[in-house]
Specification:
This protein has 449 residues and is α+β, with helices and mostly antiparallel strands. The chain contains 15 helices and 21 strands. 33% of the residues lie in helices and 24% in strands. The radius of gyration is 23 Å and the shape is globular. The structure holds FE2/S2 (inorganic) cluster and fe (ii) ion. The site of FE2/S2 (inorganic) cluster has 9 residues, from loops.
Length: 449
């Protein structure tokens, strides 16, 4: 197949990208954050074939509950079915392409397009076409003209993930060596986790990768970017910035995150935000639960931040999950939820919710620091010179710790960022054959009067 003709793109673009992103050398070209051609490749080659977190399943507890999420820039309706399973399909009417559901969430028995009234059931199957018997030579093929289903949907630890690629490995396989770390973040206690309340949504004028790479890799910025906020929170001097307070993990699939070492460190940290009651929950319920489930060695560390490739971020210490939703090369939308342990006391849950809003909600004091950095990186990229700069991600290496799968290391290293971009590079330079071959010819003539 002649790919140049099929995709309308030059293979030179792939060669160009290989020069722009050199994970082994720790060098990345600033244009990957703003180039519109690269952004289009990301939509087709990353977002159309990676596992994307759609919502917590507690967002749609009952049959007929729905939530409109995004996979890249494609809106999808996520719906709880009568049998308790979850289906997801493109939020696009197959008649003339209108947005099928204009709501953001709710409960329904079907979705009726507001343009001409085509109706679909909660699985996305076309069930009714107004005046069909008068207007078409033959009944429409309901299967063929149903909404486009997301072929793979899975739920893990109460989180719903979808993948447009029917041939992609299942979700756990795609975690690779990061599977244990996923469980250590989201499966800590037998009761599991759920989202408290609804979703926060806000926009930041920066490329989506700036958020994703930070939660994958960057513990380094904390004491500099957040020093004022930390000082304000703990009413005193920030802890000294030295020693080895934690460990990081990363895997060749592009996931990454970090843990604090030692009970004292995390209890001290949490005392600053959730007070004695929050700290007591950690030491008396959560960590003993982790020791019983995973082994004491894992209760000696406390998860802080992580990002599962490409766009699912989590700050365990603040109980905030989020997705980074691309809105063009120069803008992203953050959607965030507060998670709580189902077996934690109600007052801890409410405290957590307030603390999350205060720290990493849209107006959170830490969130403001991070957003300011990202916007500050993005803004100069409109300049002809700034976007041609090579940027450095050469910090630190990695080492092996017994029983820690994947690549691990001390907390101050950019090895996870290099892994994130190695995975990114692998995907954006590999054609998505199913998409780039173009739409299959539609056998529509038989129905045209
Ligand atoms: S576009 Fe939906 S019914 Fe016509
Ligand atoms: Fe931060």
């Amino acid at each position: 197949m002649d790919r140049e003709k099929v995709s309308g793109r030059s293979i030179d673009l792939e060669e160009k990208i290989r020069n722009l992103v050199q994970p082994d050398a720790g060098v990345i070209h600033a244009s990957v954050y703003s180039d519109p051609e690269i952004y289009q490749l990301e939509l087709e080659r990353i977002f159309a074939r990676s596992w994307i977190m759609l919502c917590p399943d507690s967002q749609i507890p009952n049959s007929g509950d729905y939530f409109v999420a995004y996979m890249g820039e494609d809106p999808v309706i996520v719906v709880r079915q009568a049998d308790g399973t979850i289906a997801a399909f493109l939020n696009q009417c197959r008649h003339r392409g209108a947005t099928l559901c204009r709501g953001e969430s709710g409960n329904t028995r079907n979705f009726t397009c507001t343009y001409h009234g085509w109706t679909y059931d909660t699985a996305g199957t076309l069930t009714n076409v107004p005046r069909e018997e008068f207007s078409y030579k033959e009944p429409l093929d309901r299967k063929k003209w149903s909404a486009r289903r997301v072929p793979q949907v899975e739920v893990h630890h109460g989180l719903v993930f979808g993948n447009w690629d029917e041939n992609a490995p299942d979700f756990r396989t795609s975690l690779g060596d990061a599977a244990l770390y996923f469980d250590l973040n989201f499966g800590r206690t037998e009761g599991g986790m759920a989202a408290y309340g609804g979703v926060y949504k806000w926009r930041v004028q920066c490329n989506w990768k700036l958020g994703a790479e930070q939660l994958t890799s960057d513990n380094f910025h904390f004491m500099t970017s957040h020093s004022s906020a930390i000082t304000a929170l703990i009413e005193g001097e920030a802890p000294p910035f030295d020693g080895e307070p934690g460990r990081i993990f990363t895997s060749v699939e592009g996931h990454g995150g970090g843990f604090l070492a030692g009970q004292e460190a995390f209890v001290a940290q949490l005392m600053t935000t959730t007070g004695q009651i929050g700290a007591d929950y950690i030491t008396q319920i959560e960590q003993p639960g982790v020791a019983a489930k995973f082994g004491q060695q894992w209760a000696d560390f406390y998860p802080v931040y992580c990002n599962f490739f490409p766009t699912f971020g989590y700050l365990h210490a603040n109980r905030r999950i989020n997705v980074w939703i691309p809105r063009g090369p120069n803008e992203m939308e953050i959607w965030a939820w507060v998670l709580y342990d189902r077996n934690s006391p109600e007052e801890v849950v409410e405290l957590r919710s307030k603390v999350t809003a205060m720290t990493f909600g849209p107006a959170g004091i830490f969130e403001q620091d991070d957003s300011a950095n990202w916007v500050d990186i993005q803004r100069p990229l409109s300049g002809a010179i700034a976007r041609t700069s090579e940027l450095n991600m050469q910090m630190g290496g990695y080492q092996s710790y017994d029983d820690w799968p994947g690549l691990t290391g001390p907390d101050l290293t950019e090895v996870s960022a290099r892994n994130f971009y190695a995975r990114w590079l692998e995907l954006v330079t590999k054609p998505n054959e199913a998409l780039e071959a173009g739409a299959t010819k539609q056998e529509v003539l038989a129905n045209v009067r």
